[in-house]
Please model this.
Amino acid sequence: MRMPSDSELTLLFEGDGRQLQQFAFVYSVIVDWGEEDEEIVRLFGKQLPDETVEVTPTDKGLDVTYNGQMHSIALTFTGNDRYITIRGFQELIREKYEIRLFEASYLSDTHEFLILPKQKWEELDARYPVRSREIFRVIDDELDFP
Model:
């Protein structure tokens, strides 16, 4: 999967609802509230063009190998695990990438996410501070499926 170009990102932030929907259709990672946690990691991993991501379920959660380094994500084996997995994966990639939720998908049982290089998010936040908060929600400890 390729990352969106600068011109596509400009159209997203300066465009209308139609452009937002089209952009999300092409670039979002879609996570259903009932998604398998290892599949969430696989879906996010596919969005990282120059990274290697492997995942193995364990009796305690997930073992995720990111660029050759193994990390464990402890799960509760409850409905809360979707965002435990998302936050855990975000922690692994945080030096280079950031995951954000498309705000329009928040009240749904299917959430849409965008992964961009951390530097790109910083540029977009500086250029479009209000619009960025309108379109995206930062992944924090409070975020979960409604």
The two ends are 29 Å apart (CA to CA).
